[in-house]
Amino acid sequence: MIISVPKEIKNNENRVALTPAGVKELVKRGHEVHVQQTAGEGSGFSDDLYVQAGAIMEPTIEAAYAAGEMIMKVKEPIEPEYGLIKEDQLVFTYFHFASSEPLTNAMINSKSVCLAYETVEKADRSLPLLIPMSEVAGRMSIQEGAKYLEKPLRGRGILLGGVPGVRPAKVLILGGGIVGTNAAKMAAGLGADVTIMDVNLGRLRYLDDIMAANVNTMMSNEYNIREMIQTHDLIVGAVLIPGAKAPKLVTRDMLKDMREGTVLVDVAVDQGGCIETCEPTTHENPTFVIDDVVHYCVANMPGAVPYTSTLALTNATLPYAIELANKGWKKACAGNKELELGLNIIKGEVVYKHVAEAFDLPYTPVDKFLK
Description:
The chain is an alpha/beta fold.
């Protein structure tokens, strides 16, 4: 198979979908890998390293897209890329379709095969290609939240961990999954007073067992959220429903109950966000203020630490990419339920229920294409 890796062009997105080590693994299995020039520079991988690994370098993004039977990316295609995607081409990347109707329609019109990292799912319901970036984003949510609590950045002017004789900041984390767990670990390690909320009592029991003494657990419901937001300094939205829009747990009217300089970090923003007032921002302009509350809603948080993120992501995606390249998408997905669940759109038809429901589109069972 011919695999192609274009350079990411989303604002401040420095990750790359395939490392030189990944190229070498594919090439030695008889596949041809094309990489756009400078695609890996943001993550610390030079063109020379790709050439040494056996890649064919392409001078432009147009050439990179034109060359590949399978396109490997990190972030969803953006508007300048829509017209570069060809009929029957396999696109393997994060899509988060439920948060973008224009993207969904563009991929339907392209008649390509869209296999989304974020909906590849194991039998235990874990999301192996989302987990590494959720780990990064969860940890970064505290790193960024601590920064924006500083007064010059319009935060409350409070040090996350406090100092002897001064109480630490209070951190509220909505969601006890991978993002929330990693956020809680970071916040607790910095000495904050942490509360993590979830609707799953079994998960809360688990978190109560493994977390440090300065992490408390609490059942998530509207009453408890309304009570807690009044006294917490940093609030992290960490809720995920695979492939679907995130529920709005913090609503517009709740802002009036927060203290001036409270910081909201919505990690779920790439799935529509769980904080009603959050809109996607970029690393270039990461925050905005509504009712004296600071909103940090960067949709590609791991892109700010591309070396770590690229290695973490490609460690997870490469085995699946090898299987797709070796067998072709039809045979690979028919024989691997995890990959089958990653299929979202096939040749103009939506085959993932949550995406169809998000925009009231016709749904086609994936079996139609795998027989």
